[in-house]
């Protein structure tokens, strides 16, 4: 098997069959079957997918497009053997004829960006560690992550401890493998980050690093779920071109998982369209003309007009704010004022400093304390320097939903949806107080305060819960949803609940970073509608961070302002 990178051909593994056979070989074979969860009886249970008839031939390029993230999650888990196919694909090839007689568990890999990777025990972990002193195991660099055998075993995190260890400090690769690694790193834009700690990488850079790691393990089939989410405009075509090259050379074969509103790459030839329990498969030009696809691919963007109040109170005031580590400058002389009632769209390439800027605004970054007020520079949050605002008070003034918050939020078995939403009033991570709506910050709550908080929780859950985005057959009432365990929700449902948490207390400032990642199309539509039609008041300021213009609930006609980070500098557009 060979791969073409950088104009050169590299052999990854010996070919297992002749080219003539490969041109007609079957990669995946599911002839007319229902798909169930293990333990569900055929007659008494509703299948996850019904009447699935899907065949993938060698040379075809497939994308799996889902109306909801849970559908793609189930579809890929079916391919990993985590769901039961009835009847099972026929022998001798089974589900993956092209692999027979090799083990699919060894040769099929999946990279999904909706799963929580850290603190799997359910506890909160301090995601602000990336900005200051970090534990020894968090100092592991991207290069060491790729080659864990170079690590001191005492500082290897659990997920890397199964890797073989060698006495050498440096990894010795064959000239061919070294050139392949160098070309992969170059084409994925990760070369200059190889010796940075993983924890210091941006969200987009981390996504590319995870894909690189998966490719380097040399699977025969790679399933990539939402690989474009969180990637900037500049890196998307580079990644897609690389995936196309890999797929053409079958090193590895690639199947993409896309959201319904994601553009389908030109090189994709076939699409599997998922909606509920129904799967429609076929050539791209036919599937993309399906009524269901066309009616949902464009989301309405009508909005209640919001006129920013130029005289509103200044919520955030940054003047010549600078963040640097030794000689590496991350933010360079940022000047930005955010007023009550304003809607901002923060833009910038992966690694441009967006996450760092948000950490300065939330007060999480240690250098937010050192931005001393002077004539030439200052950082004021709600009219005061960071050092004069107690952290609990600041957390109650800002509602946040970000990839870091999603990963860090505790998943305790007894924490319900209501409990999670209720922590949003005080900005805490543990439910407390009467009715689990908090105890208040700086002053105790009155009975009237508690009553308002309870009513507000009910309002937000009713507006953003399943009744707003689920269909009539699968929706559940708000009372039942309130009691569901947060840890048992799907990724999209968890993100929606954390959005409720960010909005419930009507904080003065709301920060929404990659807010729609992992959400179903219905959830996105319901949330956008809520944000446009009263979910955010004229006294609240909002900053939304996304690479996609159509993910911003408001348009220019609604007074949305834009700021773009370019190499650490802020440009007001």
Describe this structure in words.
By secondary structure, the chain is of the alpha/beta class. The protein has 2 domains: 207 residues, P-loop containing nucleotide triphosphate hydrolases (Rossmann fold); 259 residues, P-loop containing nucleotide triphosphate hydrolases (Rossmann fold), CATH 3.40.50. 28% of the residues lie in helices and 22% in strands. The strands form 5 sheets. It has a 6-stranded mixed sheet with strand order 7-8-9-5-10-11, with helices on both faces. It has a 6-stranded mixed sheet with strand order 17-18-19-14-20-21, sandwiched between helices. Strands 13-12-15-16 form a 4-stranded antiparallel sheet, with helices on one face. A hairpin with a 2-residue loop joins strand 10 and strand 11. Helix 14 runs antiparallel to helix 17. The longest helix has 18 residues. The chain starts with a strand and ends with a strand. About 5% of the residues have low confidence.
